[in-house]
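Before relying on records like the one below, remember that each one covers exactly one chain. Contacts with other chains, cofactors or solvent are not represented anywhere in the record.
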Amino acid sequence: MASKEIGDVRVTAMRLDNPMRTRALLVLLVSLAAIVVLAGCAGRRGLGASQSWSGVVVAEAGDVAFVGTKDGRIIALDIEADDRGRINPRVLEEFDTSDRREESDGGRVGSAFYGTPVLAGDRIYAASFQGFVYSLSASPNSPLSDNDVGSFEIEGDDLRSKGIVGSVAVTDDEVVVGVSEDSHSGRLYVLERTELDENSSGSRIERCRYPARGTDPIGQVWSTPVVSGGVAYFGDLDHFFYAISLTDCKLVWEHPAELGGGVVAPPMMLGGRIYVGSMDRSFYAISASSGQVSKLFTADSWFWAGAATNGTVIYAPNLDGHLYAFDLDRSELLWSYDQEGGLESILSTPAVTDSGDIVLASDSGVFTLLDSDGEVLARRGAGKDRVRAPLTAVGNTVYAHSLDEIIQVFVVDGGDLDADGDLKLEGF
């Protein structure tokens, strides 16, 4: 195997059958490790980030969608079908963080949305790479309004990677977010949703944080928390996984669960267990009640993207270029799909459609449609436009957001993957 150190991160590319894939994977791991070390540096004080990993979130009515961009915008999209039945997205409105000046820091503004916005009720919640959490109006008459914005800024070192990479988790009463305070440490914040909506003072918005203010922090938190039963579950880059009460930000388990590697992928909650992949190449199940850890299977590289599920099978993508299908009832690996050896790593969460098929996007920008047995049904894409944002499925329609700021729409129909429309976002 090959190893290289970047800052405090050791990158290891495991030996694969294909030497070309091994070299490509090592290059990718080095670049991702550099992002981990340098996170935030490119986004300080109005400088743009090089990419965005924001997925597309679609309103329940199915006619409006929202996405974040690398230059600090939240864009509302009209996604109604045209007279031919094709969805050709168009921009309705946008919220631009560069138009805002936060008085607390003499003019620093938010930049880049790495996490996918969350639509809850008539509001959109999003966290910027620079450490701001926003609450925006998302009413049918005005998808995004600059006159109705709540914001909260986390604490940390502006010059040493302070920021937010994951998405927020939203409940009826709380907005929960994991953050990095600097290049080595982080915390979990629990915010009062109503106070954030009303743009109250920071002291009124923040309910609590873990660890508490004035105590030693934990590792950087890049993963999106999953919330269930008044508890937030999340991992950090220091190999620990936590269960924190939303009421008082106290640890629920006797002690944090310890994994073999850091956690970047968002965890998934199913049937009283949390499922998450780690940077030690292992995919884990963790008891929500006790924190007991079980290793389910091992891949050849990092689990970077989140997994998808149909309720009984988990589909976990890996940087080794494979998609792993794990059966929860039988507790065994059903199959792994290797993209026939020719495509790149997978950094995008796949989508499971109503038909039960799986849509997968590789880092080469190629989209693959698989059936539930892992058999290839169709493949689309020119292989030029990298996709690292999670895919979004609404019925049998799938939305993708590429690093080149292109929104692509696909429809799964009769075992085929039809390109239904696309939109190049303006300004890039």
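The helical segments are 19-38, 193-197, 202-205.
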